[in-house]
Design a protein that fits this description.
The complex is a heterodimer of chains A (181) and B (563).
Chain A: H1 2-33, H2 35-38, E1 42-45, E2 48-52, H3 89-102, H4 108-111, E3 121-122, H5 124-138, H6 142-152, E4 166-167, H7 168-178
Chain B: H1 3-32, H2 43-53, E1 61-62, H3 63-86, H4 103-114, H5 124-127, H6 130-160, E2 166-168, H7 170-196, E3 206-209, E4 215-218, H8 224-232, H9 253-277, H10 281-308, H11 327-340, H12 355-366, H13 377-397, E5 402-403, E6 406-407, H14 410-435, H15 438-441, H16 449-463, H17 478-507, H18 524-558
Antiparallel strand pairs in B: 1-2, 3-4, 5-6
Helix pairs in contact in B: 1-9, 2-7, 3-4, 3-6, 3-17, 4-17, 6-7, 6-8, 6-13, 6-17, 7-8, 8-9, 9-10, 9-11, 10-11, 10-12, 10-18, 11-12, 12-16, 12-18, 13-14, 13-18, 14-16, 14-17, 16-17, 16-18
Classes of the chains: A mainly alpha (181), B mainly alpha (563).
């Protein structure tokens, strides 16, 4: 029964190495070099944590930019998507509802639900598309709002990776800061 | 196609191959025990592990003993993970106080991670403690990947040894792959990912109050260390339920690129390593070429389908199930890569892809994930097709088939057929039975052909040890957990059994010198033949099922039909 003993002893030392030491080393070193990011990119206002830069939150008030639709109602404790195919009448219905509420001209990312339910970004077009609504409800000029959108907007990484995008929470936070109502 | 898209895909391939080739040579040296300087400082650890476990690193074993060691080791790995999952409620590092998983789910999940499938019937942030994720799952991510990689050395020894009963030492092959290949890479990747925003901490979930004044609970945990090995080891099991679509798991376009690269790095490198180990690098090139051609063709089909299949009732390419920072192209490329390799992580929801992009993902898994394929698994799966191709080529020219100087005879062909047919049969029988049984039908979330695709995808993913899913399918029922657990087990170990026994048999044969009449396997003609065999076996076996699922759905979608 040599094999059994070898297996057990090897499993023990490998578990110690890969299940304990390796993740702990990454935690300690990663936490030391990138304390903000390893901790979840949390944003604060005073002492209060207002969310994570990477996690979408619900915005229904017209004075805020709205994020993409979420199949999980923006509850990060259980990420998820609709998983619906384009032959599903449920998907067609929710698409048409959104198209009706936002207008046919709404950019694609606002008309479809995200993959994680927590997509923190919208496209730049979607932000500009909502700028008038936000400006109206905050009694601001459109240019003031679009200026902020362009300030927050991120380009493709190295010019070709990913998509141009706007972080909704950061944009809304900036709006609050610069135009306290 | 947009310029960025074309540029991205070409750039990706250039980087992949320019890293994959030298890394393959690196892996070959590790396999041989000729540890490169860069990682030689790890050597003392290797000695400690051998000493502590009582491993005789010099010993060589026969095929059946090698297999026995592998199976017993994996059985204990399964058992440990199973117990951790069952009793996580009594274990430390459980700030959310999650209870142990129920018996069928713990069984399913433990098998899933031991077999390198990483099928997820659970959702990480909802049900697993940090202890389970780290000590349980992360460990098995390493061990299952290195188990697969060890088999490459078995094949090499089978082909190189002459009149020899032995094919190597499982412990040595497995430990070396872990220490010199998987560990350093994972460590570096994990740290870069943390720098991109992948979380890595042991803090309890954080309560936030949103700008609109609503409470939000943000999950935390040691994600980066697991994400790194999940990609490099072609495991694919996400720290979070939605895997790499989750912004905490894949926060930026750059993290997405790195993960995409990691999915295919070892699968590409291992084929180059094989060529190097056989002292004829062209043997690797001809196989890589076949894989690359298949991959490119499938990527083109998938991409074309995704950007051109637009529902009649919608404007523009659907973004359903996709993330804005990632976009359409990188979602499609990922879906092809993750199913070609037996990775199974996702950065978009495959169930919401256009039907033919879903078909490409299905097809990749149905061929046995041999287009680059999983860590070890991709190459040893392709090895079975190589044996088959050599056999068919031999029949065509009327000579007894040989591969690298070893005669391929009835025994090898029988085993190769078992290795290819058993997983295929599992998919078709399982899905066929499921399509007429309530235990599967009640789990589907679509009516019409997409419902069938869900069932088909479930069995293809588990039998092929992929782990991605058409996520609308509710696989977390006691019966399905057990059934799919057994499917993963058979899909993994029958193939391993076939490959190890073939190698054992080859090792005992004498070397047949290469003559003018030998069919060369290091040419691109061989690549073409190999592509043909993969396509014919895959297409003939699965075309009827694919017609009823994704192909039917494609045409209904174009007509605007919904269910």
């Amino acid at each position: 029964m040599n094999v059994v003993i070898t297996s057990l002893r090897n499993l023990f030392i490998m578990t110690l190495l890969f299940g304990v030491l390796y993740p702990l080393a990454v935690t300690v070193i990663g936490g030391a070099i990138f304390p903000f990011k390893s901790g979840g990119s949390l944003l604060r206002s005073g002492d209060q944590i207002i969310g994570s830069e990477l996690i979408a939150q619900k915005f229904e008030d017209p004075k805020y930019f709205a994020p993409r639709s979420s199949a999980i109602d923006f509850k990060p404790e259980s990420s998820g998507a609709t998983q619906k195919s384009a032959t599903s009448s449920d998907l067609k219905e929710s698409y048409e509802e959104r198209a009706k509420a936002l207008g046919e001209q709404a950019p694609s990312d606002l008309l479809w639900a995200s993959g994680s339910g927590l997509d923190p970004h919208i496209s730049v077009e979607s932000a500009l598309f909502q700028a008038q609504k936000v400006a109206n409800s905050r009694n601001l000029r459109l240019e003031e709002v679009t200026k902020l959108v362009k300030f927050v907007a991120e380009e493709r990484f190295l010019g070709f990776m990913g998509q141009p995008r706007v972080n909704v929470l950061r944009l809304n936070q900036l709006l609050n800061k610069s135009h306290q109502r | 196609m947009q310029t960025e898209t074309i540029f991205y895909n070409i750039f990706f391939f250039i980087v992949l191959f320019s890293l994959g080739y030298p890394f393959g040579l690196f892996m070959a040296r590790v396999f041989e025990g000729d540890i490169p300087k860069r990682v030689s400082w790890i050597k003392p650890l290797e000695k400690i592990i051998y000493g502590f476990s009582g491993i005789n690193a010099e010993a060589k074993y026969s095929a059946s003993t090698y297999l026995l060691h592998l199976l017993i080791y994996n059985a204990f790995g399964f058992l440990l993970l199973f117990l951790i999952l069952l009793f996580q409620g009594h274990l430390p590092l459980n700030p959310q106080g999650f209870a142990g998983l129920d018996l069928p789910l713990a069984f399913n999940t433990a098998i899933s991670f031991t077999t390198n499938t990483n099928w997820q019937a659970y959702s990480g942030e909802v049900s697993l403690s940090y202890f389970s994720q780290m000590v349980g799952l992360t460990t098995q991510n390493f061990l299952s990947a290195s188990t697969g990689l060890a088999i490459i050395m078995v094949i090499v020894n089978g082909l190189r040894n002459k009149l020899d009963k032995t094919i190597g030492n499982f412990w040595v092959d497995m430990v070396r792959m872990n220490l010199y290949v998987l560990l350093p890479l994972s460590f570096i990747l994990a740290l870069i990912l943390v720098g991109q925003g992948v979380i890595q901490n042991l803090a309890p979930y954080v309560k936030a109050v949103t700008l609109e004044g609503v409470d939000q609970l943000l999950p935390m945990g040691p994600a980066a260390s697991q994400v790194a090995i999940k990609q490099l080891g072609t495991n694919g099991g996400g720290f979070f339920g939605v895997n790499s679509a989750h912004p905490f798991e894949n926060p930026t376009p750059f993290s997405n690129f790195l993960q995409l690269l990691s999915i295919l790095l070892i699968p590409v490198a291992q084929v180059f390593a094989f060529g190097k180990l056989m002292k004829d690098e062209k043997q690797g090139f001809s196989i890589v070429a076949a894989m690359a051609v298949l991959f490119t063709a499938l990527l083109v089909v998938s991409h074309w389908s995704e950007v051109s299949t637009i529902p009649t009732w919608a404007n523009g390419v659907p973004m359903e199930g996709k993330e804005q920072r990632i976009g359409v192209n990188e979602s499609v490329l990922w879906s092809v890569a993750t199913t070609a390799a037996s990775n199974g992580s996702v950065n978009s929801m495959h169930s919401s892809l256009s039907p033919l992009a879903g078909l490409v993902a299905l097809f990749n898994m149905m061929t046995g994930e041999v287009i680059f394929g999983g860590a070890g698994a991709g190459f040893y799966g392709m090895f079975l097709y190589v044996i088959l191709t050599v056999f068919i080529a031999g029949l065509m020219v009327g000579r007894s088939p040989e591969y690298l100087g070893k005669k391929i005879e009835a025994y090898e062909i029988k085993l190769a057929i078992i290795g290819i047919l058993v997983p295929s049969a599992l998919v078709l029988l399982g899905a066929g039975l499921g399509a007429v049984s309530s235990w599967a039908l009640t789990s589907t979330s679509h009516k019409g052909p997409h419902g069938l695709s869900e069932i088909l995808y479930t069995f293809a993913s588990t039998a092929g040890n992929n782990g991605s899913a058409f996520g609308g399918f509710n696989a977390n029922t006691p019966l399905l957990n057990v059934l799919l657990g057994v499917t993963m087990l058979i899909g993994r170990f029958v193939v391993i059994y076939a490959v190890v026994m073939i190698s054992g048999s080859l090792a005992q044969k004498k070397y047949t010198p290469i003559t003018a009449g030998t069919f060369p396997t290091n040419t691109y003609i061989f690549s073409v033949l190999l592509i043909g065999v993969v396509l014919i076996v895959g297409a003939l076996t699965f075309f009827p099922a694919l017609t009823l699922g994704p192909i039917a759905e494609h045409f209904l979608l174009l007509k605007g039909h919904t269910f």
